[in-house]
Amino acid sequence: MGRKDASTVKLPVDQYRKQIGKQDYKKTKPILRATKLKAEAKKTAIGIKEVGLVLAAIWALLLAFYAFFYLRLSMDVDPDLERDED
């Protein structure tokens, strides 16, 4: 018998959420569109850390190739070649 009254009473949280939803509708469409585009751009933007990590990886790879070929070519030089000039 008291349940009929309980179904019509809304919780304060639900009323607050409904009020917040109404405030979003009051904003104009260009403002909402701009906010959405700004949030999406921020989400997809490349950060400084990612750029730095990529540059460091490329630099390390080039340094490794250089060291490999430097050591490989410096060991192939035969010291006996200079003595053959006789």
From TrEMBL:
Signal peptide: none
Keywords, alphabetical: Endoplasmic reticulum, Membrane, Transmembrane, Transmembrane helix
Compartment(s) where it occurs, according to its Swiss-Prot or TrEMBL record: Endoplasmic reticulum membrane
InterPro entries hit by this protein: TRIQK
Membrane topology: Single-pass membrane protein
Transmembrane region(s): 51-71
Gene Ontology CC terms, in alphabetical order: endoplasmic reticulum membrane
Location (main, coarse): endoplasmic reticulum
Entry's family note: Belongs to the TRIQK family.
UniProt protein name: Triple QxxK/R motif-containing protein
